[in-house]
Amino acid sequence: MIPICIDIETRPEFADADELLRIACDSKANPKRTDATKAEWAAEPDNQVAAWSRESLSLVGSRICAIALRGDGINHAWVDWREEKPLLSALDYVLRGLGGPFQWVGHNIAAFDLPILRIAAMRHNMPDLRRRIPTYRYDKAIHDNMAQAIQPAGSFAGVSADALAKAIGLEGKGDLADVDFAKLYGMALRGSTEDVLAVEATLKARCQRDVDVEWSTFEKMNG
Q1: Helix, strand, coil shares of the chain as percentages rounded to 5?
Q2: Spans in the chain with pLDDT lower than 70
Q3: I want to staple 113 with a disulfide (CB 3.0 to 4.6 A). Which of 19, 109, 154, 163 is the partner?
Q4: Three-class SS of residue 99?
């Protein structure tokens, strides 16, 4: 199998003003108890963005906005804030060229990246890409760095990719480990074209750094 390390960045599904208000009212981030105070909290634009941004972690409610791929002689990254299908098409094109079969490498990919990729492929009617992505989280075609780190004693359960890399003597993600995604989403949601381009640049850089760290972690843990 060809080892390929993959990382994605996600954003929430786009919402209009009424939907943003509803999300903020219903969000677990809303600290208020009565309907009136919940609505008052939800009316604040910053609170709406904060609540909306939480949807980026939803397997169904999120949309892919950046993909990075890494391996031996493999180094690709794509970003598109508005449309996820071009990202999936670019990934599919590269995978077709590589041939496979693949060993999918990453950090927490069995529970996050791969399910979201598979759902996105189904959403855009891309059956060939969907079939390439393992369905079963314990599939032998998946190598999850976090799962490997947990196995000896469970001491790395829930550890971030940045913390795991540092624990085994690698550099980690640096400044890109602490990206404020809610702030980025707010910029892109309400900002100008220039703001969207700036957000895309940050998301692409973060995704590239993620996949580089995760690939280096895989190599060191399995060298």
Answers
A1: 55, 15, 30
A2: 152-157
A3: 109
A4: coil
d(CA 12, CA 60): 10
116-165 per-position pLDDT tens digit: 999 999 999 999 999 999 988 788 999 999 888 877 655 545 788 999 99
**Token pair 């199998």: residue:** 1
The Cα 122–Cα 181 span in angstroms is 26
Domains (range + CATH), the chain: 2-221 (3.30.420.10)
For 121-159, letters b (16+ CB in 10 Å) and e give beeeebeebbebbbeeeeeeebbbbbbbbeeeeeebeeb
DSSP 31-76: ---SHHHHHHHHTSHHHHHHHHHGGGG-TTTEEEEEEEEEETTEEE
**Over the Cα atoms of the chain, what is R_g?**
18
User: The sheet that has 2-12: what strands, in order across it?
Assistant: 74-79, 62-71, 2-12, 102-106, 142-144
Question: Residue 184, SS3?
Answer: helix
Which tokens in the block code for residue 90?
A: 């670019």
- Pairing verdict, β 62-71 and 74-79: antiparallel
Q: What's this model's pTM, rounded to 2 decimal places?
A: 0.89
Q: How deeply is 114 buried, as exposed, middle or buried, from its count of CB atoms within 10 A (0-12, 13-18, 19+)?
A: buried
Q: What are phi and psi of 66, to 5 degrees?
A: -160, 145
Structure tokens at 88: 């999936």
* H-run or E-run covering 11: strand 2-12
